[in-house]
Design goal:
10 helices, MDMPI_C-term_domain, two-stranded antiparallel sheet, 48% helix, 274 residues, globular, metal ion binding, alpha+beta, Four Helix Bundle (Hemerythrin (Met), subunit A), Maleylpyruvate isomerase family mycothiol-dependent enzyme, five-stranded mixed β-sheet, pyruvate, single chain, Nonspecific Lipid-transfer Protein, Chain A, isomerase
Length: 274
């Protein structure tokens, strides 16, 4: 019995992205590990620590016993406190210690995935994300690893993999959240439509239609009379959806046509990551 076919694409995409992270950080000198990244509050070392910690938890390793300092401005709730423990416990690790642990973690996790025999609909639990199927869990790990790969690439000025298999998975995860962003968070009125026109390596056109009950649905068909049209490129879209763009930069990168107030509310609620 082999890995279920529905999970193999996620495993392949995850493998490519996490190995890309390893290749990016292996040659770094000590000072480069402290570079700031687009991820609020995190350095290069912190992002790699998070990736290591997340995969260790997926492996079933016990969480480190560690008390966080009180001056971490980006730690604002229980979810971020939970995530930060795996990061802060490694903040004094050297570059070689980081690359060695990352490499070992990739080997262990790859072996686990290669030997996975549970069904895709097997339910797993996460203290922060809650209950989900094994396939959903692997999909979200692929999304998370690709997003942080891009954080590292931007910080280290090493662009790449913007249209990789993991990027396609990340795009689909982002698009799934659009109806909630438009209809619920931004409060688009009933019987309205909002169009997202995205260019670049992962070019797409999507419309969120809000029905009479105020529920949003996502379609690939254009709208003849949208209330708002937002036009941008794929890299900017992904950075915006992951909370990596400052508000002043959004205006430079996103063209808005239509209801400016609704567009502003959509962009203010666009980030889907914690």
């Amino acid at each position: 019995m082999s890995v279920h076919s529905s999970m193999q694409p996620y495993i392949d995409a995850w493998t490519q992205s996490i190995e890309a992270i390893s290749e990016l950080v292996t040659p770094l000198v000590e000072g480069e590990w402290n570079r700031r990244t687009p991820c609020p509050g995190w350095s290069v070392r912190d992002i790699v620590s998070h990736v290591i910690g997340s995969e260790c938890e997926a492996l079933g390793d016990p969480r480190p016993i560690h008390t966080l300092p009180r001056d971490l401005y980006h730690v604002t709730d229980e979810r971020s406190r939970y995530t930060e423990v795996q990061v802060d416990v490694r903040r004094h690790h050297t570059g070689p210690e980081m690359t060695s642990e990352l490499e070992y973690t990739i080997i262990r996790r790859s072996r686990q995935l290669r030997n996975e025999r549970r069904a895709p609909d097997h339910v797993v639990s996460h203290p922060v994300l809650g209950r989900m199927t094994l396939e959903q869990s692997l999909r979200m790990r692929t999304f998370d690893v690709w997003v942080h790969e891009q954080d590292l690439r931007q910080s280290l000025d090493k662009p790449g993999n913007i249209d990789s298999p993991a990027a396609h998975i990340a795009r689909d995860v982002m698009l799934e959240r659009l109806p909630k962003v438009v209809a619920k968070d931004a409060g688009a009125p009933p019987k309205s439509a909002v169009v997202f026109d995205v260019s670049g390596p992962l070019e797409f056109l999507r419309t969120v239609r809000v029905d009479e009950e105020g529920r949003g649905t996502l379609t690939s068909s254009p709208s003849l009379g949208p209330l708002v049209t937002l036009t941008t490129d794929w890299e900017s879209y992904s950075r915006l959806a992951c909370g990596r763009l400052r508000p002043r930069r959004v205006a430079e990168l996103v063209k808005v046509e239509g209801d400016a107030e609704l567009a502003e509310r959509i962009l203010a609620n666009f980030s889907i990551t914690p």
